[in-house]
Amino acid sequence: MKRLQQLFTQKKERILNIYFTAGFPNLDDTESIILALEKSGADLIEIGMPYSDPLADGPTIQHSSQVALANGMTLRILFEQIRSVREKTQIPLVLMGYFNQMMQYGESAFLNACKASGIDALILPDMPLEEYENHYKAQFETLDLGISFLITPQTSESRIRKASELTRGFIYMVSNDAITGGSNEISGRQLAYFQRVSDMNLPHPRLIGFGISDRNTFDIACRYANGAIIGSAFIRALENAEDVKEATSAFVAKIL
């Protein structure tokens, strides 16, 4: 969590958070991708836990999960990979997946493994706020693990403020009510939503995700929030790459 806090203290704008699916395109690419992202200028890295039944992921990330699982990726292997790469970098690492994965692993065992391997925070889109507050908040805080909750254009002001109250990290602003990897165009309705949330003066940094795919959409998002999250577009850049390090460097260069 301290690495995440340090980032948000030192950098207030144009924070680039890149998402990739662990185990894609190859099982052992995790370390290479993380180190290449850091070297290329990413500020924060979101590591996706491949899952067979995703709720919010679009076709691109769903496909990357299927490939990763077929490659043999498991949470135990992922924790080992993160523990290894953590010896080589201090860039903030956020693990994104689903509440069921945490439950299947064993909640306490999962959170302890996150802490031991060097994960700074979690994003679990399907974990209800009330479930976190009543059953897991104390353990997250004891382990000094952050958690980011998602808000959407449909989220009421009271719910946004509740999510902000419980967040330990950043607010994940879903740009629309669709799945990941959707339209590359940002509508006037979305801009109004961005402005509405900005005007709420929430105490946490805000990062906009879903539909952020290139320099233009990144720039627009950064006008209304502290930064943005890019996932599906990066996955597509990796899919047929002969060298994931070169593909990573080239992709980030097109954003910054």
Descriptive report:
The structure is a single chain. By secondary structure, the chain is α/β, with parallel strands linked by helices. The chain has a single domain, classed as Alpha-Beta Barrel (TIM Barrel), CATH 3.20.20. The protein has twelve helices and nine strands. The chain has helices at 2-10, 30-40, 59-70, 75-86, 99-105, 107-117, 129-143, 157-166, 188-198, 215-224, 232-239, 244-255; strands at 15-21, 44-48, 93-96, 121-123, 146-147, 150-151, 171-174, 206-209, 227-230. It has a nine-stranded parallel sheet with strand order 5-4-3-2-1-9-8-7-6. The protein is globular and about 45 Å long. The mean pLDDT is 94.
What series of H and E elements makes up the topology? HEHEHHEHHEHEEHEHEHEHH
CATH-assigned homologous superfamily: Aldolase class I
Regarding quaternary structure, what we see is single chain
The count of β-strands is 9
Task: List the total number of helices.
Answer: 12
Q: What is the spatial order of strands in the main beta sheet?
A: 5-4-3-2-1-9-8-7-6
In terms of per-residue confidence, which ranges show pLDDT below 50 for 5 or more consecutive residues? none
Give me the CATH fold name.
TIM Barrel
Strand content: 5-15%
In helices, the fraction of residues equals 40-55%
Please indicate the count of domains: 1
Rg, rounded, reads 17 Å
Q: In the CATH classification, which architecture applies?
A: Alpha-Beta Barrel
Per CATH, the class reads: Alpha Beta
Which term fits the overall shape?
Answer: globular
